[in-house]
Structure to design on (526 residues):
DNA sequence: GCCTAGGTCCCGTCC
DNA sequence: GGACGGGGCCTAGGC
């Protein structure tokens, strides 16, 4: 069975339910709870309705009714325990390194589900910085005529250079790539790499180019004053399609046809 | 009613269910689906079991059975629509700025819940950078004897200085605060501010201090070579307790007492 | 384990 | 709306 659920469970059934499904299914509790966290920081959250999600890998999310971000959480690798204390149901998640403890005081569970979430597919994403790197190596003159990329992720003491190359006059060229609008931080990053290279090879023989679809105003000003360069380039999106071994069997959804329009 | 749910719904009931609860409740679908996203980047995700969460503020999350992060998402402010197309149930979320479209092809819904998630409490968090700022303003000699903080979040063309002050010799002192171990980026940030101030007030009259609980090795090396300083300081955690207007009424959970030990 | 940097980062805040 | 930087950032990839 893919899904088990309890509606308005009492504590005994809830405990058994969690015991049975934890580390095997994703458990979701629609609950009224409060939360205490202590670790890298420390927080409290008073009583309210929230969604608790516990995944088999130990990650834990507590969601409010707004925002993409969980209000409290624990990353994967954390370990779950739970008990009754002073007549309250408490879920505790502990992360070892760094030491972080999250406690959920659960006052009421309106609904609980456990989902044996079988997923063998990974996200296929394009338009990231890596795609820019590939594009530049395949077609270096996107940067400029005569540019020769030499290595990617080139490590120096002050960081990791996205692309290191040479121009047609044999100057070192350091590229810092950004998939989105570059900001002050991006310029500082490029400058850090360029300064190390200049200290090694001399002022005149090192250039730094920020490669991005656009620049913030502050970044542009700083770039100019530091004699760094900008090359406008947008990360490429490769063509993608969903594999079409799909929609074959037991699509319980396809039972009734409705108007083919957005609701 | 706090929670409505459907178990193994057919499409007609599912559509009505969503129509009824969207923008009012958090909707959770335990489903088999695939996902297409196109916006700042572009992605596909082939068929598999996932948890879909749609919040009243328009945020949308698609979770796999692992990790804290959703595999696909849309932030709050996005708008939801849905339809049947080629006998498939499709949920579409559109974000206006930047333009981003997310489409979920839903093959099967094992379980659906709608949760009228009432929450009037906000997270109360301590141990953040702001707490360090407060601490330093209250007790400036935590930085050094004679330090006088003058302003916080002081804006200059190359960014925003956490704390600007003067030392006992009337030198400008620029503090860059980090609540956690400071890295290369932190040093570059501080350097960027210091260089602007030096260009304005002269080399000898500006100091830069990185204030953090610790430093990465690379950051330490860079800091030294740039003649910047480090002051070890850990963000303070204020005392906090949950407000105790709690555990009064209708705690359906407290029906059976179990052993008071962690399970 | 530490270090480094990317991210569809999200998010708040201030201009 | 752009800009800037924090975050309990998370996560991946090297070493």
């Amino acid at each position: 069975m893919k899904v088990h659920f309890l509606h308005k469970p009492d504590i005994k059934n809830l405990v058994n339910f969690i015991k049975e499904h934890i580390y095997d299914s994703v458990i979701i509790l629609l609950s009224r709870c409060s939360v205490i966290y202590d670790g890298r920081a420390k927080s409290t959250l008073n009583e309210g309705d929230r969604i608790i999600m516990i995944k088999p890998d130990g990650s834990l999310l507590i969601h409010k009714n707004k925002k993409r971000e969980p209000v409290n959480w624990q990353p994967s690798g954390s370990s779950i325990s739970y008990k009754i204390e002073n007549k309250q149901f408490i879920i505790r998640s502990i992360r070892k390194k760094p030491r972080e403890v999250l406690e959920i005081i659960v006052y009421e569970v309106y609904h609980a589900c456990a989902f044996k979430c079988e997923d063998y597919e990974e996200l296929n994403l394009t338009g990231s910085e890596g795609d820019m790197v590939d594009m530049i190596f395949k077609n270096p003159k996107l940067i400029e005529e005569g540019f020769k990329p030499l290595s990617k992720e080139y490590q120096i003491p002050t960081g990791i250079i996205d692309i290191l190359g040479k121009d047609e006059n044999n100057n070192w060229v350091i590229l810092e790539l950004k998939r989105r609008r570059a900001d002050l931080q991006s310029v500082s990053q490029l400058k850090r790499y360029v300064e190390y290279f200049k200290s090694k090879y001399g002022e005149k023989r090192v250039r730094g180019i920020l490669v991005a679809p656009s620049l913030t105003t502050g970044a542009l000003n700083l770039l100019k004053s530091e004699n760094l360069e900008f090359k406008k380039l947008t990360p490429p999106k490769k063509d993608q399609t969903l594999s079409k071994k799909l929609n074959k069997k037991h699509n319980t959804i396809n039972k009734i046809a409705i108007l083919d329009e957005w609701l």
Q: What stands out?
A: Chain A touches chain B through 117 residues (CB under 8 Å).
